[in-house]
């Protein structure tokens, strides 16, 4: 079965913000009740930020599967992050997949795989050395099947 994937544009920002909110409700433990996530100004701020970001077609991309006009069934959003050349690669970017979400009514149809694959292809063509993401436990099997591993020693901390 072929899945029709398209690159999102700024007009998709409202749906992408909805999908971002949906992705943040994933439970910490697989197959348990989704986390409660309050509405608030952050949702509109997210929509505005997405609309602005999607105007930069060089370093930001989102790919979607539509379910109806102005309605998205699945999305994957990512960024190209500049990197310095090193002895093992002169590729100019690392890729960061920020948001992957599928509307619950459309899960199990291969939509997440299709949008993530489209995003990874875009990142690879643009010159990524490495593509990273943070996976929910529900998403780990998909990402592992696409070649992602957890054996990279990377540390982080929240900025203050």
Automatic annotation (TrEMBL):
InterPro entries: Acyl_CoA_acyltransferase, Bact_Acetyltransf, GNAT_dom. Pfam families: Acetyltransf_1. GO terms for molecular function: acyltransferase activity, transferring groups other than amino-acyl groups. Residues 3-160 form the N-acetyltransferase domain. SUPFAM superfamilies: Acyl-CoA N-acyltransferases (Nat). Keywords: Acyltransferase, Transferase. This is Acetyltransferase (GNAT) family protein. The lineage of its organism: Bacteria, Bacillati, Actinomycetota, Actinomycetes, Kitasatosporales.
């Amino acid at each position: 079965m072929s899945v029709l994937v398209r690159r999102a544009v700024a007009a998709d920002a409202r749906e992408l913000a909805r999908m971002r909110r949906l992705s943040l409700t994933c439970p910490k433990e697989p197959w348990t009740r989704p986390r409660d996530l309050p509405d608030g100004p952050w949702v509109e701020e997210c929509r505005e930020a997405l609309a602005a970001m999607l105007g930069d077609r060089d370093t930001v991309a989102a790919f979607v599967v539509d379910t109806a006009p102005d309605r998205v069934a699945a999305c994957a959003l990512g960024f190209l992050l500049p990197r310095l050349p090193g002895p093992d690669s002169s590729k100019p970017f690392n890729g960061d997949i920020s948001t992957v979400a599928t509307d619950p009514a459309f899960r199990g149809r291969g939509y997440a795989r299709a949008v993530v694959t489209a995003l990874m292809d875009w990142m690879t063509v643009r010159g990524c050395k490495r593509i990273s993401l943070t996976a929910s436990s529900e998403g780990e099997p998909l990402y592992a099947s696409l070649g992602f591993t957890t054996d990279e020693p990377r540390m982080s901390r929240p900025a203050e």
